[in-house]
Automatic annotation (TrEMBL):
<dbReference type="Pfam" id="PF00356">
    <property type="entry name" value="LacI"/>
</dbReference>
<dbReference type="Pfam" id="PF13377">
    <property type="entry name" value="Peripla_BP_3"/>
</dbReference>
<dbReference type="GO" id="GO:0003677">
    <property type="term" value="F:DNA binding"/>
</dbReference>
<dbReference type="InterPro" id="IPR046335">
    <property type="entry name" value="LacI/GalR-like_sensor"/>
</dbReference>
<keyword id="KW-0238">DNA-binding</keyword>
<dbReference type="InterPro" id="IPR000843">
    <property type="entry name" value="HTH_LacI"/>
</dbReference>
<feature type="domain" description="HTH lacI-type">
    <location>
        <begin position="10"/>
        <end position="64"/>
    </location>
</feature>
<keyword id="KW-0804">Transcription</keyword>
<dbReference type="InterPro" id="IPR010982">
    <property type="entry name" value="Lambda_DNA-bd_dom_sf"/>
</dbReference>
<protein>
    <submittedName>
        <fullName>LacI family DNA-binding transcriptional regulator</fullName>
    </submittedName>
</protein>
<keyword id="KW-0805">Transcription regulation</keyword>
<dbReference type="InterPro" id="IPR028082">
    <property type="entry name" value="Peripla_BP_I"/>
</dbReference>
Length: 336
């Protein structure tokens, strides 16, 4: 087969002519209609490949408001958790017959707002879910042609907020360690620019006070394992600390290293906990007790809520926590 299309963008009618079918049949092929005969399907596929045909999404959207695409808005920056969230969102969208395109929002607030409005009015997406807060009043009733759902999990600097900053599991960690006889604790913290780090410190302090325990100190570590390592190395021998609550697995690993370097056994002499379920924490000796966060479920829930909005249905309620404690070798009963 040869093409006379040249450098022009091929049309659906040219695909149909080359494949020897009607343009309606090609349209059904593009909608994945399973009723098309296999021979016709093969000819259409070959014609599309030869011509380099790509559906015109804007034209399709103008005709029937269907593009099969959802947009996921994220602030500019890098967060490992966002990859897991994207995987969950993609799974939920794929199960409903959609694909997800990720769009990052950077620059000043005004620029981000304009970008959101451009995307919402482009006609390229059937729905948009923003994983970062949008300016108040930006999306009033009838403001855009495309539904936009805001599921705020990251601030404008890609730091976790909302459910991602929930620190309630810190209370569970301290309570369980207290039941095992621990009475004096140390907290090695994260970067207080992160809501999650501030919340973990506050829940730690509140739980210590509620249970009548003793906090020897809160050491500001800024997510740096070296600071946690030094904090444990510098503990006086008679400080009484038998448990360290780490703001994440990196500072927890630093605390373990500090303990081992000064000849303390973990967990026989010092119990240590972390957060984030870093894969290395599961294999290092001793493996680190941690808190796992189900980022994928947050992504699936965001897309599911958007799909419910598109169908004009109420979103499904899911009150289950997204965090769970994984108890490992780094924690045990307090030394006697």
């Amino acid at each position: 087969m040869t093409s006379d299309v040249g450098t022009r963008r091929p049309t659906i009618r040219e695909v149909a002519r080359l494949a020897g079918v009607s343009h309606e049949t090609v349209a059904r092929y593009l909608r994945a209609d399973t009723r098309i005969k296999e021979a016709s399907r093969e000819r259409i596929g070959a014609a599309i490949a030869e011509l380099g045909y790509r559906p015109n999404l804007v034209a399709r959207a103008m005709r029937n408001r269907r593009t099969g695409r959802l947009a996921l808005l994220l602030p500019a920056g890098v967060a490992i958790s966002s990859l897991e969230m994207l995987a969950g969102a993609t799974d939920a969208a794929g199960a409903a017959g959609y694909v997800v395109e990720v769009v990052t929002l950077g620059g000043p607030a005004g620029v981000r707002s304009e970008r959101v409005l451009e995307l919402a009015d482009s006609g390229l997406f059937e729905g948009i879910v923003s994983l970062t807060p949008l300016p108040a009043g930006l999306l009033g009733a009838g403001a855009t042609r495309t539904p936009v759902l805001v599921a705020p999990h990251y601030d404008e600097h890609m730091r976790g907020i909302g459910a991602l900053a929930d620190a309630s599991c810190v209370a569970d960690l301290v309570e369980q360690l207290a039941e095992q006889g621990h009475t004096t604790f140390l907290h090695v913290s994260g970067d207080y620019a992160h809501t999650s780090a501030r919340n973990r410190r506050q829940v730690y302090l509140d739980t210590i006070a509620r249970l009548g325990l003793r906090s020897y100190a809160v050491v500001d570590c800024d997510w740096d394992w070296r600071r946690a390592w030094r904090a444990v190395l510098d503990l006086p021998a008679d400080c009484g600390v038998t448990a360290v609550v780490g703001a994440n697995d990196k500072v927890a690993a630093g605390a373990v290293r500090g303990a081992l370097e000064r000849g303390w056994r973990v967990p026989q002499d010092l119990s240590v906990t972390g957060w984030d379920d870093n894969p290395l924490g599961a294999v290092m000796p001793p493996s680190i007790t941690t808190v796992a966060v189900d980022h994928g479920r947050l992504g699936r829930a965001a897309v599911s809520d958007l799909l419910a909005l598109l169908r004009e249905e109420a979103p499904a309620a899911d009150e289950r926590p997204i965090t769970r404690i994984i108890w490992r070798e780094s924690t045990g009963p307090a030394p006697r």
